[in-house]
Amino acid sequence: MDRFSLARLLRQGFSGHSGWGAQWRAPEAPLAAYDVVIVGGGGHGLATAYYLAREHNIRRVAVIERGWIGGGNTGRNTTIIRSNYLMPESAGLYDHSMKLWRTLSRELNYNVMYSPRGVMMLAHNVHDVQVSMRHIHANRLAGVDNEWLTPAQAKAFCPPLNIGGDLRYPVLGAALQRRGGTARHDAVAWGFARAASALGVDIIQNCAVTGLARDAAGAISGVETTRGNIATRKVGVVAAGHTSVVMGMAGVRLPLESYPLQALVSEPVKPAFPCVVMSNTIHAYISQSDKGEMVIGAGTDAYVSYSQTGGLHIATQTLDAICELVPQFRRLRMLRNWGGIVDLSPDRSPILSKTDVPGLYVNCGWGTGGFKATPGSGNLFAHTVAHDEPHPINAPFSLARFDTGRLIDEAAAAAVAH
Ligand code: FAD
Ligand code: PYC
Q1: Quick one: angle between helices 374-387 and 43-56, nearest 10?
Q2: What is the CATH number of the domain that holds 133?
Q3: Ligand 1 centroid vs 350 CA: distance in angstroms?
Q4: Ligand 2 neighbours (beta carbon < 6 A)
Q5: Residue 273 in contact with residue 288, Cβ under 8 Å?
Q6: pLDDT tens track for 268-287
Q7: Is the CB of residue 340 below 6 angstroms from any atom belonging to ligand 1?
Q8: Do 46 and 12 fall within a single domain?
């Protein structure tokens, strides 16, 4: 059976056909062979598959997704895009992505609704002001735009913002990255999926990876799934929130912890909020989607968990903070809230790396901030998998840094309480 008919059968859920399911699930009989299997059909996994096919001409690629594409963090985030991280290594990584966003809709022939409307990060106390200044200087030295706004300038940029002196956390100024903004998150997953599929990539949904097989020499030889086995010599794991679980299937331990992170949206209203505003100190961030909903995010829960909700008290505190910053939003009704599972690394920077297992690669640890990196992450991870070597931009983000101690500490720039 060729790979296309296999994928078609998997998509049709062939186990419902009497007599077929048992035959195809036999663990000793590999179902198909691929050059690369990507575990996880979020934005990063789909982007990796797309760039493998597009830039490296590796088209025998399968993306295995246990749910539906984009149903993980990709479709649950608050869509903020920026590159104002602190360390030079991060400037390279996030700005690489920022450049790809600019032309992504055209490249994919799919409107991802990228909107560089500006991201403003508020300072509420002397410490915030000093940290913001340090970030602005570091960013400019690295060639990344970022500028300081006084409270009056911040209000001119975002008129609904309350800069009154009687606030519990007054606005003392803000760091503005004008190139920052938002995109439509599910369109990013769909755009990469459609473009990858058009290049021959198979995207197999409702199929969980349950095992990683290794040969006598210890190298990757295949993956086991809930729908049968697949032979491959290369596996890229991009399973945010569950990366440690999947990598554990090959005996690889990772320095990650998984936490719930939640978001909420209001009822839709006419355009009322022109940019993205973030405040780490009061644990809130807000923008308005093109549908008109106010998209609001909070900090992580305080405890590790695989729950895809978040503590109600955290949402309540976030809404209190938003109502103080933008008083007219007190009258908005909230429509929905949800959570995702973010995997935090010790230095709050991602891991895009080869592993000690030949043929096994990992892309994880994006924590609260990987949406903005989706095109860049996929582009660099595809390079790493295709060449069995990292690209110079992601070389510093290897697993080796946890042995050498060359960490890339971005705890402050993550800008979300965790
Ligand atoms: P995912 O989209 O989670 O994809 C991983 C996929 O792997 C999932 O679909 C999952 O089902 C699948 N999977 C897991 N285990 C298996 C298995 N065994 N077999 C097969 N498939 C498996 N980032 C920003 O830059 N800006 C933001 O504003 C922002 N806001 C956020 C707000 C919230 C509430 C959350 C939760 C996250 C936010 N993030 C933000 C972070 C961002 O969403 C993530 O870093 C990014 O989406 C990760 O993408 P991904 O493709 O790696 O993961
Ligand atoms: O990384 O910019 C970010 C972010 C905003 C909300 C969650 N993460």
Answers
A1: 50
A2: 3.30.9.10
A3: 13
A4: 78, 80, 82, 285, 297, 368-369, 415-416
A5: yes
A6: 999 999 999 999 888 899 99
A7: yes
A8: yes
